[in-house]
């Protein structure tokens, strides 16, 4: 009974889990933790349609016995005749039937595990942005350099509207570290260890996303702040205010020399696009 | 079987089914609303990121899978059985050319193409032609072509190599499998059997048939999508990106490195060009082309979805052919560049 029910309705169960999770994220403004905003409308519309179709399927799809009678059977999964009658008529099939039942039970356990896993990942655990661990794994320094070609043009630009991503790419693209010396900025990001993990500097970082979190690439700017570990931990969100300048620790490239670094909460859109 | 006899119980099931569905929906909503927010705090960063990455693949792909299932149902319910067969050229080679251009009309992402291809097989497409469609549609569609153009313009022939490469590989694979003596043996037994009895041939009403198709397609597709997403998420946290990037400057290794990345990351073909653009400075153009040709055709998530329809043996062969051909195209571009 249970294995058959699970096998038959697993798709609808997963549909409902996915739809509830997606619509809840949409309504609470957290969809941007997972996908690029250009997909928001499409995702919400298709989720509503998917949810309605699941309910229609529950309401209209004939139960399996009725379906088997209607079609006869050739389909493996549809072959659920009464086993005792089957065995009596064809004793040599008894073993096959028992084996099929065992397979059915194993399949149901696998499907049940997938559904439970989906409920846990999508509905029980709170939504979360990627952590600094992934930023380190993906090498902030290298991805910032790789993306530098996308830096905004300076001609006629309003520097005040530049995001942390714009500045990170510009600093990396510029040939002279002093090109933006003295430029005042206010940057919001999470703390990741700077290359070499020094005690007098950290990287203020964000992820930039093309499609969904899977392709998130970290970008960042080094912030010179001796003793930062006493005030902050990796992954803390901060607002750093200050001016760009040469690295007081003697490193290559420009760093942010902050006037203030204050803790803040994770913004509604933790990724930049 | 008399239809009057089974009429009554089926009507009863309707109300129960809908009631159960709404109850399940409310239960899931309550779980989401009342799950304590501190539950995630106990997870290590890596486990947390594994969950985030996997969930992002699910949320990104699910709408496309729904769209693909809807199109597949529409094709099966409303397209007359011999419509495709009658309208397509008789020559098998020309038919494959036409099939590989179907993506122009149906610009859904590759994960939506799997349910659609299943519907097309049931509506008269041969197994080889369905592979041509599956491989060509994600690349030869307007959205992919436009985003690739936006990302690369005409630089290094990347756009042309992508379009031509996708077309050639899709037609090559279709031709190879058209020579198979028993094409139905390439399909999983369950799917082959469901092709043998036409799902729309019964006397049920169209809404009822559509409801059953939705039930069956989600039952096949969604477990595969969830498992594929979890594997994609797991590989992401387990394999260091450094290893891949270190290989980037070698003309041969760079091609395989980006193909491996495409396989792992399972990104949608409509936007993969923007993603790989950032690797343009590190990797050679041939590697970028290999990424853009191989990725839409074969990746972790696609293999999980394709496994609902094709046997494991077929998928191993398919992956090998597509990988070798993509690598050949990538290496060729590197030679010229």
UniProtKB/TrEMBL annotation, chain A:
Highest taxon, organism lineage: Bacteria
* Spans annotated as Disordered: 66-93
Question: What spans are recorded as compositionally biased (Basic and acidic residues)?
Answer: 66-84
A Pfam short name: DUF1980
**Does the keyword section mention Disulfide bond?**
no
| Protein keywords | Membrane, Transmembrane, Transmembrane helix
Residue intervals of the DUF1980 domain: 21-81, 175-273
List the transmembrane segments: 12-33, 39-61, 103-125
Protein name from the UniProt record: TIGR03943 family protein
Highest classification ranks of the organism: Bacteria, Bacillati, Actinomycetota, Actinomycetes, Micrococcales
Automatic annotation (TrEMBL), chain B:
InterPro entries named in the record: DUF318, UPF0718
Q: Name one Pfam family in it.
A: ArsP_1
TM spans (from-to):
12-35, 55-79, 133-152, 159-177, 221-239, 251-267, 273-294, 315-336
The places in or outside the cell where this protein is found are:
Cell membrane
Q: Carries keyword Cell division?
A: no
Origin: domain of life: Bacteria
Q: Which UniProt keywords apply?
A: Cell membrane, Membrane, Transmembrane, Transmembrane helix
The record describes its membrane topology as:
Multi-pass membrane protein
Task: Write out the similarity annotation.
Answer: Belongs to the UPF0718 family.
Stated name of the protein: Permease
Q: Which organism is it from?
A: Agromyces salentinus
């Amino acid at each position: 009974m249970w294995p058959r029910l699970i096998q038959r309705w697993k798709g609808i169960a997963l549909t409902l889990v996915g739809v509830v999770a997606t619509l809840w994220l949409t309504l609470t403004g957290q969809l941007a933790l997972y996908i690029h905003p250009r997909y928001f409308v499409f995702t919400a519309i298709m989720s509503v349609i998917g949810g309605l179709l699941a309910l229609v399927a529950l309401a209209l799809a004939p139960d399996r016995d009725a379906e088997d009678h209607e079609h006869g059977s050739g389909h493996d999964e549809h072959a659920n005749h009464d086993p005792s009658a089957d065995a009596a008529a064809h004793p040599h099939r008894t073993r096959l039937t028992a084996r099929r039942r065992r397979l059915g039970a194993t399949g149901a356990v696998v499907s049940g595990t997938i559904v439970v896993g989906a409920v846990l990942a999508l509905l029980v655990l709170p939504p979360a942005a990627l952590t600094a661990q992934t930023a380190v794994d993906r090498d902030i320094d290298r991805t910032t350099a790789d993306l530098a070609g996308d830096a905004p043009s300076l001609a006629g630009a309003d520097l005040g509207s530049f995001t942390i991503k714009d500045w990170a790419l510009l600093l990396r693209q510029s040939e002279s570290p002093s090109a933006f010396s003295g430029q005042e900025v206010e940057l919001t990001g999470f703390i990741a260890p700077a290359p070499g993990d020094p005690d007098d500097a950290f990287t203020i970082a964000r992820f930039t996303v093309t499609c969904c979190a899977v392709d998130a690439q970290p970008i960042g700017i080094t912030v010179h702040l001796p003793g930062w570990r006493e005030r902050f931990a990796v992954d803390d969100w901060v607002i750093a205010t200050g001016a760009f300048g040469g690295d007081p620790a003697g490193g290559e490239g420009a760093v942010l020399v902050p006037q203030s670094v204050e803790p803040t909460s994770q913004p509604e859109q933790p990724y930049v696009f | 079987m008399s239809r009057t006899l089974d009429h009554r119980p089926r009507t009863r099931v309707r109300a129960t089914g809908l009631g159960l569905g709404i109850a399940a929906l409310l239960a899931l909503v309550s779980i989401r609303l009342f799950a304590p927010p501190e539950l995630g705090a106990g997870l290590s960063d890596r486990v947390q990121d594994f969950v985030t990455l996997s969930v992002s693949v699910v949320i990104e792909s699910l709408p496309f899978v729904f769209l693909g299932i809807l199109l597949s149902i529409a094709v099966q319910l409303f397209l007359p059985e011999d419509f495709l067969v009658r309208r397509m050229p008789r020559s098998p080679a020309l038919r494959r050319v036409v099939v590989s251009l179907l993506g122009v009309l149906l610009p859904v992402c590759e994960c939506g193409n799997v349910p659609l291809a299943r519907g097309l097989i049931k509506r008269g497409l041969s197994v080889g032609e369905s592979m041509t469609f599956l491989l060509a549609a994600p690349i030869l569609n307007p959205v992919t072509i436009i985003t690739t153009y936006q990302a690369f313009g005409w630089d290094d022939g990347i756009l042309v190599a992508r379009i031509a490469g996708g077309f050639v590989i899709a037609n090559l694979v279709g031709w190879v499998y058209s020579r198979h003596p028993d094409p139905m043996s390439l399909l999983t037994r369950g799917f082959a059997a469901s092709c043998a009895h036409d799902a729309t041939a019964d006397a049920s009403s169209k809404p009822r048939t559509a409801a059953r198709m939705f039930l069956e397609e989600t039952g096949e597709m969604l477990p595969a999508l969830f498992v594929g997403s979890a594997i994609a998420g797991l590989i992401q946290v387990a394999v260091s990106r450094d290893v891949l990037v270190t290989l980037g400057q070698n003309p041969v290794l760079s091609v395989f490195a980006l193909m491996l990345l495409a396989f792992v990351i399972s990104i949608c073909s409509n936007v993969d060009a923007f993603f790989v653009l950032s690797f343009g400075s590190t990797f050679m153009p041939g590697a970028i082309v290999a990424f853009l040709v191989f990725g839409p055709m074969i990746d972790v998530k696609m293999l999980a979805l394709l496994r609902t329809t094709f046997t494991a043996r077929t998928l191993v062969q398919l992956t090998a052919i597509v990988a070798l051909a993509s690598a050949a195209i990538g290496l060729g571009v590197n030679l010229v560049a």
